[in-house]
Amino acid sequence: MLTGLVDPLHDPRWARLVDRCPQASIFHHPAWLGLLAEQYRYPVAAAAVFDAAGEPVAGLPLALVASRLTGRRLVALPFSDVCPPLLAPGTHPDALQLLARAVEAERRRRDLPLIVRAPFAQLDRPVDRFHLHVVDLRGGLAEAERCYASRTRRHVRKARRLGVEIRQRVDPEALEEFYALHLRTRRRLGVPTQPKAFVRALAGLFDRGLGFVAVARFEGEPIAASVFLRTGRNLTYKYGASDERYLHTRPNNLIFADVIRSACDEGLATLDLGRTELGQDGLSAFKRSLGATEELLAYTYRGSAPGPSTPSPARRAVAAVIRKSPPVVGRAIGKVFYRHAG
User: Fold this and answer.
1) Which neighbouring-strand residues pair with 282?
2) What's the pTM?
3) 158 and 11 in a common domain
C-alpha cells in the first residue's frame, strides 16, 4: 500500500472513504472541512493510505493553523471535539501504522507540532484530556429511554406538561434564533461568541441534509436551541444555547428526548454528546442522565506538549470581562479569538 496526501474538499475519493467508514463523524466530512477552510481560512489536506486501485483505505484530515498569536501547528481537527483516523472496513489494522508514518512525514516536512484530537497510538502515546459521552441508539427508542435517569424522565414530563414545544428546523431563521440565544449563553458563561458568519454558514450543511437546529419554544418564544450535525448513522450534538430565565421549564431535557426519538426512528446508531472538560461534574452528570456512556477522551501530540488542562489566569480574566460587558464585547473577542484558537 502507498501513502500520500489527498484533497478532502474536492477529491471524491475522500468522500467515498468517509461514506465507507461507520466510525466517521461530521468532522471527517468534506462539508465540515470546507466550512473550516472557508470561514477560518485554514488550508486543509488529508494524509491517506491507498490500496492497489488508488482508493484511500485509511486517512486523517489535517488543518494548518497559522497564527501570529498562537503559532503555527497542524490540527486534526480545529473546532472538532474528536477526530480519529479512519480505517475502512476489511482493511488490515497495519494500515494505521502506515498512516501514522505518513502523518509524521508531513509534520516533519512542515516542521510543525501536531495535535490529533483523538487517540492515535500508532503515532504517539495519547494523553487523557476530557470526558466523551455517547448515547447508543442501536437498541431502538424503548432501550434508549430505559437508560434515562429518573430525573430526566421527570423533567421531560414537566416540559411537556408546561407546553414546551420542540421543532427540528433547517431554515435560516432557526439559526438566527439559535444565535440570539448563543449570545446570551456565551455571555453568561464568560465564553467568546462564535462569529455570526460561521453560525449562518451552518446552513450549507443543513442544505445537504447534514444537520438541523432543534428549537424549544414556550408561549411562542424561543427559549433554547441546539445544533446537531450528522453523517452516515452518527449524530453529533455541536452547540447548545438557552435563556436562563426559562430553564425551570426544562427545555434542554425535552430537546434531547425529542432528538433521540427522531434519531431512533431514522435508524441512527449513535448520538455523540461531545467532549466535557474533566472536573465539569454537573455537565457530565447531565449527559449521563440521558443514557450516555462516559469514557476518557485522549488527544495525541507530536512535537509539542499538551497545554494546561485548567483555565489559565488570562482565560479567567477574559471570562470575567465577557460576563460583565454587553454582548458586543463577547462578539468582538470571538471574531478575533477563534481564528487563532483552532
Assistant:
1) none
2) 0.95
3) no
